[in-house]
């Protein structure tokens, strides 16, 4: 009799222990919130179909262009290798964030420079293509967008504009610097336009940065994007002064 009672009590204790453990685990998960993987998957599933249609169209267009006879000749194996290396270097540098804005945009140790150097060696069209691929990688690194037009401006066209550094192709090494300025200016124009779409539903009185009220939506978007793009431009120019000409010579020599 005593053994039966003891067994029943033991079973009840075990069941209550298991229940309390499950409840505490559930409370812990609720407090800590979803993991970064869960958040990424949620963002992935919440992405509108129109965005994926746009991405698919760009991918199909890229395949068609690369399949064309003339462009296939232009895109040599060496050129593809340098393009992939530039994208990889830019992506790695973009993961080192010296400062980060509330929604998106950050100051990095010159993450745009490898792509601009690639464009300066191989031209605007290859640079635009590599920049577009890099922009899509940036989106998956920090998946956030407001609308489909803003997505295209902020994540595709803004980074595709880095290919404008290709104006330096075939010219003196000093052309690299105006090429960098033009490329960052192109990205800034796209980012400001995207910012105007984001704040379209807000009144000017709500547009405040660091306690300073902006007088217009354009001013708000320009200041917001300038806060991280101007330091980024300065870092890229400084690095270009230090290593740019030498890297250009080496890339052109092995072209």
Q: Estimate the strand proportion.
A: under 5%
Alpha-carbon distance between the two ends: 90 Å
The main pleated sheet reads as: 2 strands, antiparallel
Query: What overall form do the CA principal axes indicate?
Result: globular
- Tally of separate helices: 10
- Which topology of the largest domain does CATH recognise? Arp2/3 complex 21 kDa subunit ARPC3
Total domains? 2
Fraction of residues in helix: over 70%
Q: Give the overall pLDDT as a whole number.
A: 75
Number of strands: 4
Taking Cα atoms only, what radius of gyration do you get, to the nearest Å?
25 Å
Helix and strand succession?
A: HHHHHEEHHHHEEH
Give the low-confidence spans. 1-15
Structural class: mainly alpha
Structure description:
There is one protein chain. This protein has 255 residues and is mainly α. The chain has a two-stranded antiparallel ribbon with strand order 1-2. The protein contains 10 helices and 4 strands. The protein is globular, with a radius of gyration of 25 Å. α6 (113-122) packs across α10 (217-253). The chain folds into 2 domains: 1-33; 76-253, Arp2/3 complex 21 kDa subunit ARPC3.
